[in-house]
Amino acid sequence: MEADRLNSPSTSVITFEVLGHQLQFSQDPNSQHLGTTVWDTSMVFAKFLEKNCRKGRFCQSKLKGKRVIELGAGCGVAGFGMTLLGCDVVSTDQIEVVPLLRRNVERNTSRIVQMNANSDSFGSIKVAELDWGNEDHIKAVAPPFDYVIGTDVVYAEHLVEPLLQTIIALSGPKTTIMLGHEIRSTSVHEQMLQTWKNIFDVKLVPKAKMDSKYQHPSIQLFLMGLKSPAVTAEKAECAISTEKLEETARDIDPQVNEVEPCKTDQDEENRGSSSLVDDLALTRLPDGELSEWEARRYGSMAARLLRDVKIT
Ligand SMILES: C[S@@+](CC[C@H](N)C(=O)[O-])C[C@H]1O[C@@H](n2cnc3c(N)ncnc32)[C@H](O)[C@@H]1O
């Protein structure tokens, strides 16, 4: 994982300004777990909330008191963004990630409470273990939620079904599902999207709605709702099997230090030119310095190039 990220392996704390708050997220990019790194899509998500919080469905008056669950929260950036807008958030992940997630949530909550005497706009956030597909975990968080959110949680074929079942189990007819995704394999991405479209009404967030800096051509945000309240987990299973994801998406093996999870040779060919061109399209600041965000994206591009370099 280290090669893909400029903040790795030495960056143990990410400082991230969102909605007027200096948040700090501890991370451990050297761990063998994907959830202990802050992923770029979570930052894009939080900055999207910031950009759209003045009017429309993401303004504080509309979000105040809404129940939100974040799946695969990792260090907890996206869910914390919803809390800053007044939501009551349950931030969840696998048991191995929970201690770091809890530390990040507690640290940022106490900073905000200390620094803002009037922290009325701040909602609430708690942490829970939730393994996708685990019925006891799902029951324990008391669905349905107003929002089910997740960033960079769709990265391996075997996760598609338990994630989908879990989202459906946590949703009611009025639930909005917000997923952020960095495309690493166009074919797998498209087929997964088709699977979502069988179950949900899917809307892609236009780039113009995203923060002008915290966006990237390979990062997409989706807003979705169940097509019909009658959609059941059974139908979801059906949607997955009939869809037949042709591409064998390679799972991210936590033992392997790389981040491109679902690549095939064909994907490489399809994607190589466009994604690298997209990455190179990042421009420098007028003074020639790279912003932190740009540095992260260049790191990602460098990792893709380096992966093909064979040292003899
Ligand atoms: C690539 S990380 C993204 C973390 C975080 N959302 C972010 O954007 O920084 C994927 C996350 O999904 C979680 N995850 C993977 N499989 C899971 C499962 N079966 N149940 C619950 N969480 C899972 C991992 O623990 C990890 O935190």
From TrEMBL:
InterPro entries, alphabetized: Methyltransf_16, SAM-dependent_MTases_sf
Bias (Basic and acidic residues) ranges: 260-271
Region (Disordered): 251-275
Highest taxon above the source species: Eukaryota
Protein name: Uncharacterized protein
Source organism: Hibiscus trionum (Flower of an hour)
Lineage per the UniProt record: Eukaryota, Viridiplantae, Streptophyta, Embryophyta, Tracheophyta
